[in-house]
Structure formats: C-alpha cells, structure tokens
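Hey, quick one: can you model this chain's 3D structure?
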Amino acid sequence: MTSETGNSPDHFNRVSELFDDLPYMRPAQATILRDLIVNENASDLLEIGFFHGKSSAYFAAVLEDLGRGHLVTIDLEPARKREPNIEQVLATLNLGHRVTPIYAHRSYTWELAKMIQANPRPQFDFCYFDGGHTWDCTGFGFALVDMLLRPGGWIVFDDLKWTIKEAMKSRTSAPRYWRACSADESATPAVKLVFDTLVPHLGYTDIRMIDQRRWGIARKPLSGTERPTHSNGLLQRIAGFIGGH
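Sure thing. Here's the predicted structure for all 245 residues.
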C-alpha cells in the first residue's frame, strides 16, 4: 500500500523523531497503518490498548497530516500513571485535539458496551486491536468492535503470536486469571485463534497476515447480504443482552 497524500507527513515523522525509544510501535509498522488509513479514506478510528500512547500519536499524526478525523482509544486506568502517559505524549506533539483517551476501570469491553448503547451509536471505519490478548477478552472484544465498525471498515489485530506462557517468562508476577489457565490455553496464541475462527465466521473478507505474521488484517463486509446469516443472529443476541442490562 502506498500513500496517496501529496503533502509531506511532517507530524508523522515528528512522532518518530521525539519518541523513537518509546514502546511499542515501530515506524515501519506505523507506515503500514498510515497507508491503510489513507488508501481506505478512514477518518473515524478506534484503538484498543494504547500503553504510553505512541501508536495513538502515530494515528493522530496521520489524521493531522490529512486534515481530518478523530481517534478514540481505550486502555486501563493504570495507563494514566505511565511516564510519559498518552496525554503528555500528545501534548508534546500538539495532537491532543485529534484523540479521545478513555481509561477503563476494569475492561475495555465495558467501555465498548457503553458505546454500543449510546444514541447515536458511534461508528468507526478502522480499529487497531492491541488489548487483552486472551481468548475471552479478544473474542468478545472483537464481537463488540464489529458492532461499531461501519460496513467496509478494517480491523488490525496485533500480537497474533502472543501466548500467556511466553508472556509469563518475562514477568515477576502475572494476573491471577493467567495463572488459572490450563496448560493448553496458556500455550495457545489466543489472538490468532480469534483471527482464524471468529473473523471469517462473521463474514470478514481480505483476511491476511502482515508484518512477519505478527498482525492480522481483515475487512468487514460492505453490506449485510455479504455476512453469513448465523453471524447476524449472533450479533442480535449480543445487542439484545447489552441493551437489556
């Protein structure tokens, strides 16, 4: 994918210049996402998991260079205490007006539930999914994101190769629900399992792995007629459950 913008991406390059050492997104990855956003004319972006806010800054920079759009990004409350945190990163870059950070009390899934219940319901044409990483968090989170994506919208899953087993090797402590997982669940790349099973189940197209198979990318069907009937029923049940609580 190549950029169709005729302007020099000054804001985009400035993120790399000022925050090159900040984890986690690399400039080459950000370039892939920039080209996707530009080529698909995306303006309303959603991000699950922002950590320090480096990826968010890249998204905001892309939008600023294009002169359009906004990013809604979600992470847990402890992200507020990171040094630097997302608000400090965006303020340094003068990009805070392009981003709405949301700090979730327990899970991003509840924040997505509130969006789904909102009237009018927010609609996005791109989602970068980098949160949770377990089967239940990612699977349910994807079903909720699907309800917020416009037809033809794109989703990019990060960390297809991630496993609880490998993640625990680099941590002195681990969440209790990680330790409660069986050996086979701990060793299974859960994000990839969602990508391989639920994404095609919901009728997504243009499914492929990129960035040395670390990312999975897919496009939501352009119309309801492209989506399998069994997935329509699934979404209706989820919407009914959330709407009744």
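One thing worth noting: The first helix runs from residue 10 to 19.
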